[in-house]
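Comment on both lines for my students:
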Amino acid sequence: MCAPFMTVVVPVYNAGLYLKFALDDIIKQTYRNFELIVVDDGSTDDNNDLLLNLKNTYKYVKIIFQEHANGGVARNTGLKYATGEYILFLDQDDRFEPDMLKTVAREVSKKNLDVLIFNGNRFCHNENKFLPATNLLRLDILSEESITKQILSCHDRKNMVLQFTGTTVWNKVFKRDFLSKNNIWFQSNPGNDTVSFTITALCCAEKIGYCQKILIHYREGNPTGQIAQQDNWPTSIYSALLQAKSELTRRGKLRDYYWTFLQCAAEKCLKRFELLQTVYGKRKLYQLLHEQGLSKLGLTSDCMMKSRLLRYRYKVNSILKYNTYEEYLHSRQHIMQKSGVLGRTIYLMPQLPIDEGCSLILYGCGSVGKSYYIQLMNQKKHNVILWVDKNFEEIGFPIVSPKYIFSTKYHLILIAVKQDKTAEEIIKYLVDGGVPKDFIFWKLPKII
């Protein structure tokens, strides 16, 4: 069995301290027949010396500096310079097992694969512990034939390849000749530059294998990572999925992979909608999906009646049904009451010193805040652009961190708390942060 020459591409942008750990893991691989291509995408941090030292120390390391474009462009640059038979695209902040390359090289060589998918887990950055990553390999949905050979059968590829694994690129190995012949490149799409690439590759590949061994530790909770910055590009997931659909259509693959694509599209749109942290981001994605996005992806009301999509039907139909994000929130009041997000004690909301149609921020998610929120949704006189509380992490959506106040435009901040002392503390916090007192409103709540 030959030992294939491998290429590892790592796009880098302001990786900070994490970069050294990631590159050290790659340099210390027990498999030596590989090249490392690091593409610096216009970083402004202090890692230049680290990269240049690597280049001068190891002959198999190539460092490419380019003006800032985004991760997709950086990966394409690495792909253009790659000479390996197989190629991996790894992230700048993850950790890798020392036998990662040895293991994947053995698997792709033994099975002559177009794509190899390998397992990994999550490294929780804040808690310093490892947790399972169940979406990387879904063995429970595969046929006996696929499990026996550890190669996806034709039936499994066409019906469930996009449910078997996610659209992450960093737990996959690609035959370079396969990518070249199929002209598969990364999309220039900040926040979701690997989605279209991975979907296209998985649907074009004729031979996909997998390895159950955990070889990568995905860093979760990195404040500079793409997930943490997703509110900067709330609609980018839609652009990525639309591009993927276009690629599959152009290549004549959409018909064969139609249902696995639709399930992937529904899952990704709904998950991104849930993960967005700002009202601005949620509203922008909601409006896009409602007005045209879902139907252009193929997610229509009729389509959602099919058995494969029933699990997404309620949420997708809710987005299709309500014209605005505010109407959607209003429709979910009973759900939020049942879960405890909204309460049942009713405090009369005071008359507000702003005109109808003005935007306001609701501060407080206790019994007063919950009561005010219901009245604001029912009255529909004012545009609630944020609902904030210092305990936002305990409650979750739709409550977010008060820090978003200082980067949001509004006409009034309505403080919804019972005690005047608590109100004074909140007012001080806001004023110290630069909020004019004229923009802050509080009155002692009265129970109806």
